[in-house]
Design brief:
It contains 11 helices and 14 strands. It has helices at residues 2-6, 19-44, 48-68, 107-118, 120-124, 126-130, 152-184, 190-217, 294-310, 343-357, 375-392, and strands at 91-95, 100-104, 134-135, 150-151, 223-225, 227-229, 235-237, 244-245, 251-252, 257-263, 276-281, 318-322, 326-330, 362-366. Helix 2 packs antiparallel against helix 7 and helix 3 runs parallel beside helix 4 (107-118).
């Protein structure tokens, strides 16, 4: 955890750009690890219970030796004294705020218990008998931490490591600033190419993720039908009906069409949904009982149309979708007390915006038009809306 926090600069630039600082960090990290292994191991090798068992074995062996050398007829040797049972658990803790590694627990007692358990080894090795000198470290404010322990060697190695990491971080920042200055230099002309490369990378990544997800969901790729020019130079969709005339003899613009095969809701898996085939041309009225899926079909059509305009796969087996200049989807809404509008008032605003912007090449999906008012007014409102949309020839 210490290395992860102190070395957040790693991976931002190539190591060759900061070779000196990189090598210094590696050297200081090795020295810190060696200091911790050498100084802290004496109080971290073995638990307090293991040491107490070692002391008990040594005491029993001494009692048996005394009994073997005791003269016949003498008094029985006294029972062995139990080993000390002081709490000797010492843990190695990482202090996040001070970015340091310290010991926590009764280090002095554990050190004494360890030396007593090692016995003859300490007598033969003076360095092992003395061992490292443990001190209370200082926090980032310079105050002594009374419940933590360390050694001067570990503290010096940790300070050198943190300083090396700060120098490496400053070197990385300098390299990035130099690179940014070169990119922003108008004479080099690199900025424009970098921006184009980043945009291309972002778009390409989105396409890759979409392709992987679409393959897993078994989505199909819709066909986007573009406009073509006839002999008179007028634009027509390849999937439009011939121009017709109404009862008054006025020419009605040709209605565009959309053919969808095997469509299902995008939030369901292909195997869990009932697939439907749809053909939409001009105005279509969808009716049915409650909870029959009318609103779901509107969302499905809007989803497939939107994804087809973007060139993406959609939740269907296949589809032929015309080029649209707008997709309008109006589901059942609610009132807006903040705007001082009732549910019907909000519906009037939404439909007004749709009628103002919808054209012959627009897809308009309306759910329960005129529901927010009484029967006669709602019927008149819905009928007027349908007549206006039908006269435009939108889908």
């Amino acid at each position: 955890r210490l290395f992860k926090i102190c070395e957040e600069w790693r991976g931002k630039v190539y190591p060759s750009e900061i070779a000196t600082e990189y090598a210094e960090v590696e050297r200081c990290a090795r020295e810190l690890c060696a200091a911790i292994d050498d100084d802290f191991a004496v109080v971290l090798t073995g638990t307090g219970t293991q040491l107490e068992q070692m002391l008990q074995v040594n005491q029993n062996f001494a009692n048996l030796s005394a009994a073997a050398t005791q003269a016949p007829g003498s008094a029985e040797p006294s029972a062995p004294k139990p080993a000390p049972t002081s709490k000797t658990k010492v843990s190695l803790n990482f202090e996040h705020r001070d970015t340091a590694i310290w010991l926590k627990g009764p280090v002095k007692q554990k050190l004494a218990l360890t030396r007593t358990a090692m016995g003859q080894q300490c007598a033969d090795d003076p360095a092992l008998a003395t061992g490292p000198e443990f001190i209370h470290p200082r926090d980032r404010w310079g105050k002594t931490v009374p419940d933590r322990w360390s050694t001067q060697r570990v503290e010096d190695a940790a300070a050198a490591y943190r300083l090396a990491c700060n120098n490496a971080d400053a070197a990385v920042t300098g390299v990035i600033r130099t690179l940014a200055g070169e990119i922003d230099d108008p004479e080099r002309g690199v900025k424009h190419n970098v921006l184009l490369a980043s945009y291309f990378s972002l778009i390409f990544r989105a396409l890759v993720e979409h392709s992987i997800s679409a393959a897993e969901r078994q989505w199909g790729l819709p066909e986007l039908v573009l406009e073509t020019e006839d002999e008179q130079g007028e634009d027509h969709h390849a999937c439009t009906s011939p121009t017709q005339k109404n009862n008054s003899g006025t020419s009605v613009p040709p209605a565009i069409a959309m053919d969808i095969t095997g469509a299902w809701p995008y939030w369901k898996a292909s195997s869990d949904a009932v697939k439907n085939d749809l053909r939409l041309q001009g105005m279509t009225l969808l009716s049915g009982p409650n909870m029959s899926g009318k609103s779901t079909q509107l969302r499905v059509v809007a989803t497939i149309a939107l994804l087809a305009q973007c060139g993406f796969a959609a939740p269907c087996a296949s589809a032929s979708v015309p080029r649209l200049d707008g997709i309008c989807l109006r589901m059942t809404g609610a009132d807006s007390p903040v705007d001082g509008k009732s549910g019907f008032g909000m519906e009037m605003l939404d439909v007004t915006a749709i009628l103002r912007n919808a054209t012959r090449t627009s897809l308009v999906l309306l759910d329960e038009v005129g529901r927010g008012t009484e029967y006669r007014a709602g019927t008149a409102f819905a009928a007027a809306t349908l007549e206006s949309l039908s006269a435009r020839g939108c889908l």
